[in-house]
Amino acid sequence: MTNRTVTLATLDHGEITIPEPAWCIGHPNHRPDDHRADILHSGPDTVLAFRGRHITDASLVQSPFSTAEIPELCSSTPGVSVSVLGLTLDPVGLYELAAALETYADQLRNLADQLDTFLAGGDER
Ligand SMILES: [Zn+2]
Fold this sequence. Notes:
Elements: E1 5-10, E2 14-19, E3 41-42, E4 46-50, E5 53-62, E6 79-82, E7 87-89, H1 91-119
Antiparallel strand pairs: 1-2, 3-5, 4-5, 5-6, 6-7
The structure holds zinc ion.
């Protein structure tokens, strides 16, 4: 449990002080004219990059005052936002995504094997 707090100015509730999760990197993009429901805790990005190209990133997120409560978009329940999907996933969804990525990695290795065979003058079907 954390004892950290953060104080943020809001358009609709004035200055508020709220618990700050240990994983939150702060609110550098928060603006005083943001509404309380817009407050978003977010953790550091986990980035997938290849040869300097940013492919996607993911991070813990929580909208503690969300009024919409759409689990895959914004929610007071913490989730992991995955930028390539434009969705926030729960643990089950994250495991499903990880399994899909593992399957895709296997498919890429199979393509590499096929290409290696072609280039070595083997089966050219
Ligand atoms: Zn925060």
